[in-house]
Amino acid sequence: MVSESALLKHPCYNEEAHHHFARMHVAVAPKCNIRCNYCNPKFDCVNESRPGVVSEVLSPEEASDRVSRTMAQLPNLSVVGIAGPGDPLANAEATFRTFRNLASLDPDLHLCLSTNGLMLPDYVEEIKELGIRHVTVTMNAIDPKIGARIYSNIFYQGEVYRDEAAAALLIERQLLGIEMLAKAGVLCKVNSVHIPEVNGEHLREVTRKVKELGAFSHNIMPLILSPGSFFEKKGFRVPTNEESIEVQRASAEIMPVMRHCRQCRADAVGMLGGDLSQTPEMMPAERYFDKSARDEIQQQLLSRMKQRHDEPKGDWGGAVRVAVATRGSGEINQHFGHAKEFLVYEVNGLGESRLIGVRKVQAYCNGTAECGEDGDGGARVFSETVQMLKDCALLLCSGIGKAPASKLQYAGIMPIVCKGEIDTQLKKNVKYLNYFAQ
Ligand code: CLF
Ligand code: SF4
């Protein structure tokens, strides 16, 4: 049974909420009990993080101190999660001590946990008792033969398991954990890493199975090769944008899929699209937060959030793809040169829009010259951005320099400078495009 209040303010479980509400991860869990072939253990857990990132490990007390200071700074912070840098349930004592401290800080804070699932069945009771309402299980296969290509070994109850025996045990524990969470009324999201030649075709089977067990949504994330990982050394490739869209589309026929994941760091802070963890002002001297002011601001954000009750009804054949530069609030409010990511939407003939993914890029403007006019570096970044967005007919942003605007147009992507609500601008600008195309 899905509780609406558990969903409304969670930026990962509710696509609309990610425009308004922030999350924070506290990195209290350094150890891991399995070995994924896309992971380099020197870095954060790749199941929820961008590879190549190392987070500073905190004690549970340091973590709650940091959360309380961040709550003073970010009134829209609604969720605190533990997602690494290893596996939270391989560090159960620190993980649950942290959650206990956080629950006493503010009972309205949503607590969130992300795990590889190996130890999950042992902790469902404790998860429920602590009021943790959201758990993510990363599960890449339900077939041990496929799993054996993804996991090299696991450590369970003092023994090391390898190959298919390891994958079979892990899968059995993950499935049991998901089923137990559903029975306990805890919302469970399943994350999967899409490894094109290994599990690309298999992921819809994973979706089917986890839906049957009561999972709430499926987040299929493209493989990002961790430097030094087995897959990187063996020359495995990442999925193309089209492959990612296709795999998500196939799973979306079975259950809701998440398309706005940012594969964030184990110490990420802020809105999903704008990590503030490396920003010094995130650590104010003041650790006091005004609960009633926070509640009021969050209430205002909830009332600004558009509640979508109706599924789009139009035909998506011939839909136009549009890239959008945004800093949040559901608005077009980011300059092209400053954007580190673009949301890509499809807009159909009825003007209905749906998000199909997030494309990460390097910001084009380095602040030293007119938007990216800085020689070879700018040219390289620009051509990578064009590559990333080449399936988009339009790009909506709050500003763009003349040079990149004409280069984008030359590459077949029409830049349009506008401001305001994303949905409204998508509808309006695609209507013009279709009108002029006739
Ligand atoms: Fe963090 Fe994960 Fe909770 Fe969100 S992230 S523990 S469910 S609060 Fe979100 Fe980040 Fe994607 Fe994870 S965008 S990587 S899905
Ligand atoms: Fe690495 Fe995370 Fe896999 Fe552990 S669960 S091996 S930390 S990717």
From TrEMBL:
<dbReference type="InterPro" id="IPR034165">
    <property type="entry name" value="NifB_C"/>
</dbReference>
<comment type="similarity">
    <text>Belongs to the radical SAM superfamily. NifB family.</text>
</comment>
<comment type="function">
    <text>Involved in the biosynthesis of the iron-molybdenum cofactor (FeMo-co or M-cluster) found in the dinitrogenase enzyme of the nitrogenase complex in nitrogen-fixing microorganisms. NifB catalyzes the crucial step of radical SAM-dependent carbide insertion that occurs concomitant with the insertion of a 9th sulfur and the rearrangement/coupling of two [4Fe-4S] clusters into a [8Fe-9S-C] cluster, the precursor to the M-cluster.</text>
</comment>
<dbReference type="InterPro" id="IPR007197">
    <property type="entry name" value="rSAM"/>
</dbReference>
<dbReference type="InterPro" id="IPR013785">
    <property type="entry name" value="Aldolase_TIM"/>
</dbReference>
<keyword id="KW-0535">Nitrogen fixation</keyword>
<keyword id="KW-0949">S-adenosyl-L-methionine</keyword>
<dbReference type="InterPro" id="IPR000385">
    <property type="entry name" value="MoaA_NifB_PqqE_Fe-S-bd_CS"/>
</dbReference>
<dbReference type="InterPro" id="IPR005980">
    <property type="entry name" value="Nase_CF_NifB"/>
</dbReference>
<dbReference type="InterPro" id="IPR006638">
    <property type="entry name" value="Elp3/MiaA/NifB-like_rSAM"/>
</dbReference>
<keyword id="KW-0479">Metal-binding</keyword>
<keyword id="KW-0004">4Fe-4S</keyword>
<dbReference type="InterPro" id="IPR058240">
    <property type="entry name" value="rSAM_sf"/>
</dbReference>
<keyword id="KW-0408">Iron</keyword>
<dbReference type="InterPro" id="IPR003731">
    <property type="entry name" value="Di-Nase_FeMo-co_biosynth"/>
</dbReference>
<keyword id="KW-0456">Lyase</keyword>
<dbReference type="Pfam" id="PF02579">
    <property type="entry name" value="Nitro_FeMo-Co"/>
</dbReference>
<keyword id="KW-0411">Iron-sulfur</keyword>
<dbReference type="Pfam" id="PF04055">
    <property type="entry name" value="Radical_SAM"/>
</dbReference>
<feature type="domain" description="Radical SAM core">
    <location>
        <begin position="14"/>
        <end position="265"/>
    </location>
</feature>
<comment type="pathway">
    <text>Cofactor biosynthesis; Fe-Mo cofactor biosynthesis.</text>
</comment>
<dbReference type="InterPro" id="IPR036105">
    <property type="entry name" value="DiNase_FeMo-co_biosyn_sf"/>
</dbReference>
<protein>
    <recommendedName>
        <fullName>FeMo cofactor biosynthesis protein NifB</fullName>
    </recommendedName>
</protein>
